[in-house]
Amino acid sequence: MNKLQKTIKAIRLIFKNPYLLNNVLNSPDIWKEHVIKNYNLNNGLPLVHSEDLFLNNENCVKPYSFTDGGSLITDILLLKNAAASFNKCLFFEFGTWRGETTANVASVAKKCFTLNLSDEEMKSLHLSQDYINQIGLFSKEKENITHLKGNSLTFNYSELSTKFDLIFIDGNHHYDYVKSDTENTFKYLSHENSIVIWHDYAYNPEKVRFPVLAGILDGTPEEKHSNLYHVKGTMCAVYIPKKIKSEILIPQSVPDFIFEINTKMHKR
Length: 268
What we know:
- By secondary structure, this protein is α/β, with parallel strands linked by helices.
- It contains nine helices and ten strands.
- The chain has a single domain, classed as Vaccinia Virus protein VP39 (Rossmann fold).
- About 30% of the residues lie in helices and about 15% in strands.
- Strand 2, helix 5 and strand 3 form a beta-alpha-beta unit.
- The longest helix is centred in the last third of the chain and has 15 residues.
- About 35% of the residues are buried.
């Protein structure tokens, strides 16, 4: 099949199934072109080491379920160390899921808020009741965690009347949501010393997720772009209001750090 035949076939398929156009528009290659054209970041954000970000050394992750859809151990350690860098940290999270992340951060933070869709809206998206029942599984019994319900695109953040030290953006990872959550973070939720961390900035610690990166860059005020980094060994991007020594991401490079991990399993 030549290029013309492929083009005609593609147009016919999109005409019959308009939803397929979303797959084209959301292609990682298109978003990579957007990032390169507008921000000249061929390899994503500058890479930094977590030990250059924070002096403290939180090294316990509990709870952790090793299940799909969660954060890496290194992602959670990054958040715990970020929270511990503040005195009586106030934490806000977009996207609750099982509440693993918030439960971990709550051990070193004064107060945590986590925002997730309401049960009704999740049902309207045809999510299973089993999925819905697991929202906040690890966090709902923690006294210093407040569970908020709502769609992050329409939630009234001004009603919180609070500025947070650490904000974790880990809700819907489509470009429109990432951009909106980022804009609302800098407009309503952060103060001049706040740290912002985005999850799933990368598919894995060495492969950038360009639709998410595009949302981060388009949603972050331009004057703050020079303080955006990819944290090595994590799937996270971070905004931190200070300059950090950085390097360029080189996939499959020789590891310069290794971890020692001890595990202990508990039955729920």
